[in-house]
Amino acid sequence: MSFNELIKRTCKKLGENNKPTYVVMAIAAVKGICRPLFTMMDKTESPETKKYTALREGLTEAIAIPAYWACGEAAGKLANHLYKNAGLAKRAEKNLMFMGVCTAALFVIPGLCSVAIKPIMDYIGIKAPDHENKNRTSAPLQEKPLQQQQLTSPFFNNRQYLSLHNFQNRPYTGLRIGGM
Amino acid sequence: MINGISSLITSSQLANIAQNTTQSVAVETTLKSIGRPGFILIDKDIDADTKQYAAAKEFLYQATCLAVYMALIVPIFKKGGFKLAKNVIFKNTQGFEHFKDVKEYMHYRKLADNPSVKNRISTLNKEILSEGEGKLVKEKYDETLLTELEKKSPDKFDYVKGAVELSNIIGSVLGLAILAPQVSHAFIHPALRFLGLEDKSKKQHAAENKQLNHTV
Prior knowledge:
The complex is a heterodimer. By secondary structure, chain A is mainly alpha-helical. Chain A has helices at residues 3-16, 20-41, 47-82, 86-124, 138-152, 164-169.
């Protein structure tokens, strides 16, 4: 079959019934490939951040494709049960399919993503990089060096472990004024 | 209540939106711009600042996608796809010969979708061309189209509709998956800074971090 024939057949099919699921699934499929690719090509991010973000984007679209299809088809199937009149059932099928796709975009996909992505990422063993929000407000950035400073400041342990031996014979380290 | 739901389900206007790629994608993107930030905001595992930032970023991303889609993709692919199909793929056959552009076809299709022959004819006799001086839309239609509209079930020229929808699908995919993310990438960070959710650019932060590391 030539390319022109394929286009003609596709046009015929789309002209008769352009299901709302076709376009959203096509967009999700291309997004699922392109968005992670663009993320991986970003030179300003660290490799861990890129890997994490790309996988997250890919998973979101991988969840979206079956969700759109299932919601659209399931809602469309309801039409035949609801309406006996063939004309009304046909129109209802299109509308219900569209409503199913809208429900998927509004509730099902964001809900599934927030429930499923974190466990999948944990299972694969990829964790969110600590500096994920490094380009945010300056407040956390100012806190970070202070915390580091506190951790790395010299700490003199002037306490001896108490034991019967050192308790009886050794004073605490250094000179003490006033017997403290 | 039940009657309202039933009339919505069987609404011919909703069916037209559902069958139209551009309108359904626009509705879906609008819903995404509400749903995704909403779910981020109700997530209990993220702190308030991050939630606000992520939700605003997601909303701006979807809004930019919608703007790019409506401004660039719809007019280019709708008109371009029709011309390509008419002149190259179908070579003025399968119904393309009756229509000069997409607008003309869409007008015909809308009339053909009307179940009442009487209503179709009265609309044709009333409607005046917006660009012509008092000229009726009917005068643009050829004999075949006028004969079809007088039939109970007129030919809707599915090949023409399919070609328009196919070019819209290709435009939607290219626009929303490739072009819009690039545009939004350039727009989102300045917009977030304008909203006060992001103070400085990455470069400034990197320089600041470097400076702080040296002082520590």
